[in-house]
Every structure is written in C-alpha cells, then in structure tokens.
Amino acid sequence: MAKQALIEHRPWLLASxxxxxxxxxxxxxxLGEVWLIxxxxxxxxxxATYAWRRAGQGLDGAIFVLALxxxxxxxxxxxxxxxxxxxLFLASHLVAVVFYLRQRRIxxxxxxxxxxxxLLISTPLVSYLLSLKPEIALYAAALGAMAATAWLSRxxxxxxxxxxxxxxxxxxxxxxxxxxxxxxxxxxxxxxxLYYAGQLMIATGVVQTLRGERTVR
Length: 217
Hints:
mainly alpha, 8 helices, globular
C-alpha cells in the first residue's frame, strides 16, 4: 500500500517542484505572460492537488486545501493586479488561521507561546518598517496570525512552523521593494525560493500528519 501511494501521489509533488524551478529560471524569458502566470500558479496549485488527494477528505482537509488553492490563485493574480493578488493571499491566511486553530496543540511550553506572540507582533511591525504602508501592515497582521497559529498547531514545527516563517521572510523581501531602503539583489534572488520552500514544507508537514492519522484509524 505504501509503495502504491508513492506511485500515485508523489508525482504531484515532483510536478510541483518542477513547476517552481521552471518558473524561477524562466520568469525573465520571453515565454509569454500567460504561460508564465500559469506556470507560477501550478507550483502551489499542484501542492493543493497533492493535499486534496492525500488528505482532502473531511472538513479539516478541505479547509487546508482551500488555503493552498487561494495562495495559488494569488500567485497568478499578483502578476496582473497587486492589490487583487494580495486580497487572495489575505483570504488564504485567514482560512489557514481557521485551520490551525482547529488543530491546536494540547500542551504548549511558555517559550513556544512566546515565539508565537513574537511572530504575531513582529510580522506587521517589520512589514510596516520595510514598506511604510499601513495597508501592508494590516495584511501582515493576518500573515503573522497564520504563522503564530501554525507554530502553536499540532503539526511538526520543524516543517510547518518553519515553513510559515519562510513565508514571512519572503513577504518581507517583497515589502522591502516598497520602502526607502533597497535590498536588491536579495529580493530578486530569494523571494520565490523562500516562498515556495515554505509552502512545500507546510503542505508536506500537514498532509503527513493528517494522512498518518487516517491510516492509523
């Protein structure tokens, strides 16, 4: 059964990684805007497909798949309209917060709670300092809530929690382009790799946990 599952579902992960790598190296090539947008969306879109096939059954699985799907849509729409894309990511973060709150860890240490609080507070604060835009700080409050609840969830922190932190750092690099201090070429080099690595870690960490519980039952 395990071998059959790998054969059936690992291709979705491999295809997702291939799409992410291809987009990174082709994004500045004259491939065509529509094709590049589709390729960008496919990276996380295929992660959503993977999550749906492996752990999408039940309400919790469906909520998680929705969060990934909204992110994939946001990736594509960002290329056409920054505000509309940001709205989709905001919705994705809010859906993810609902999901993680439903998956709270039974026992958390004071240090874990402290780090979650630091993520909740520092994410919008740093985002504002980098961009000097109140609307960015408002968006980042949802981003910080997503990361904080992910950190306090029952999923493995070294994957899901760390993945959420990578998501934050990627967005910080985006926001740095809006403010008075340029960090180039770091944003151009690292925004996409950090973002995709974070999403990949989150997706595989959540799916592994949910799938494992279904197998035990």
